[in-house]
Amino acid sequence: MSGTWHRPRHVSQFHQASIGDQGTSEASITLSPEALV
User: Fold this and answer.
1) C-alpha 34, offset from chain centre
2) Other C-beta atoms within 10 Å of 29: how many?
3) CA 6 – CA 18 distance, rounded (Å)
4) What is the rounded CA–CA span in Å between residue 27 and residue 21?
5) pLDDT class for 24, splitting at 50, 70, 90?
6) Alpha-carbon torsion angle 24, 29, 35, 37, nearest 10
7) Basic residues: which segments have biased composition (predicted)?
8) 3-state percent breakdown (helix, strand, coil) of the chain, nearest 5
9) Residue 37 and residue 11: Cα distance in Å, rounded?
10) Is pLDDT above 60 for 2?
11) N-term to C-term CA, the chain
């Protein structure tokens, strides 16, 4: 059945972009305390 289901490319790119944004946000939050110190 998975063969009949076709995932749009823009959806995959959107998820990847979201994951990238979350990773950047986490990195910024992690570096913020060090920057303040």
Assistant:
1) 23
2) 9
3) 21
4) 10
5) low
6) -160
7) 1-12
8) 75, 0, 25
9) 40
10) no
11) 55
* Amino acid at residue number 37: V
What's the full length of the chain, in residues? 37
Q: Which two tokens stand for residue 1?
A: 């059945």
24: its two tokens: 């950047």
**Residue with the two structure tokens 């994951």:** 19
Task: Please give the helix or strand (H or E) that residue 1 lies within, else none.
Answer: none
**Residue 11 in tokens:** 């959806």
Tens digit of pLDDT for each residue in 3-23? 555 655 555 555 555 555 555
